[in-house]
Design brief:
Elements: E1 3-6, E2 15-18, H1 21-27, H2 39-83, H3 92-105, H4 107-110, H5 133-142, H6 156-169, H7 182-191, E3 200-201, E4 204-205, H8 215-218, H9 221-229, E5 241-246, E6 251-259, E7 263-268, E8 273-277, E9 281-285, H10 302-312
Antiparallel strand pairs: 1-2, 3-4, 5-6, 5-9, 6-7, 7-8
Helix pairs in contact: 3-6, 5-6, 7-10, 9-10
């Protein structure tokens, strides 16, 4: 597109056709001595306005949204604090009602008796994310971020009743006494039974078995001992064994990671991620036994007590 304009110089009056603004600027046209302004200056001002307007608008909108979000968060926080007072539902009838809600909404992860499963043991009276009634109410209501614990949609009365039921499960408030020497247990963990081949601890180790870094928060000592001597009886649901037979007769075992209608994925015994289309397999089996062998012959008596004491001590803040 070509630009046509009348020269503004006071000496020369003419109509000039220029190809673009660059040519106009080079020709000297556009200067008005009586106003001391040029088209070049006007374009620079307009360009500058455009450069700062969009970032400023974005900053303004972001600030308003942040302020609105913070205000809403504060309102929700105050509303939640008003709901979290001293537990008003602590009678035997409340405990029984809480048990019914617990069985419907909580037992799948925490076990029918509260001793743990996918979720932690609730029978010790001490909990990683808060042990007060108010903390329990909040965690049951809203869930715990970055964990598998989601909130439950129940009236406040029912949630308080669940708190009362969880309290009734506690064997003792405070740290549970465990026989054994955790320091010696640590040495046994590192040197006997090849535990670290399959289990991670503080970022190092294998991946076939559960991460043990915070085991003391999730399992009671009795459960830890049973998982060592008879792992199939105390198998973690997230580490179920799968065995597939290929059409050429090969057998591959591992720990199930994902399965849908058409395919299955698992971590094999060498920690290789394997994926199969089900149409390529002759059979899929999920035996009710752990890949971890029973270790009763490796750990018994004092050795077992020491190893359990060490694993139970794994409770990072």
């Amino acid at each position: 597109m070509r630009l046509q304009l009348r020269a503004l110089h006071p000496v020369t009056a003419m109509v000039s056709t220029v190809p673009d603004y660059t040519a106009l600027k080079a020709s000297g046209f556009g200067f008005r001595p009586d106003r001391g302004a040029t088209l070049d200056g006007m374009f620079r001002v307009e360009s500058a306005r455009r450069r700062w307007f969009l970032p400023a608008a974005i900053l303004l909108v972001s600030s308003l949204l942040w302020a609105d979000g913070l205000a809403a968060q504060n309102v929700l926080s105050r509303a939640l604090q008003e709901r979290i007072q001293e537990n008003p539902h602590t009678t035997e009838a409340d405990v029984d009602a809480g048990a019914r809600v617990f069985r419907r909404s909580c037992s799948l992860c925490h076990g029918a008796d509260g001793t743990g499963g996918d979720g932690p043991d609730l029978t010790r009276g001490v909990f990683r994310h808060g042990s007060s009634d108010a903390a329990l109410f909040r965690n049951i209501l809203t869930g715990i971020p970055n964990t598998g614990m989601g909130g439950i949609y129940q009236p406040d009365r029912s949630i308080w009743q669940v708190v009362s039921y969880v309290r009734s499960l506690s064997r003792a408030v405070g740290e549970e006494e465990v026989p054994g020497d955790p320091r010696r247990g640590r040495m046994l963990y590192m040197t006997r039974g090849s535990c670290s081949d399959c289990h991670r601890l503080n970022g190092s180790g294998g991946r076939l078995g559960p991460d043990l870094s915070d085991l003391g928060w999730r399992r009671a000592p009795d459960h830890i001992g049973a998982s060592i001597t008879d792992p199939s009886a105390a198998m973690d649901a997230d580490y179920r064994t799968v065995e597939v037979r290929t059409r050429d007769g090969g057998i591959v075992r591992g720990v199930l990671r994902n399965e849908d209608r058409y395919s299955i994925q698992f971590l094999d015994e060498f920690e290789n991620l394997r994926s199969f289309q089900k149409t390529d397999l002759a059979a899929i089996d999920k035996p009710e036994e752990s890949l971890m062998p029973p270790l009763a012959s490796f750990f018994r008596g004092r050795d077992l007590d020491d190893l359990v004491a060490y694993l139970y001590s794994l409770r990072p803040e």
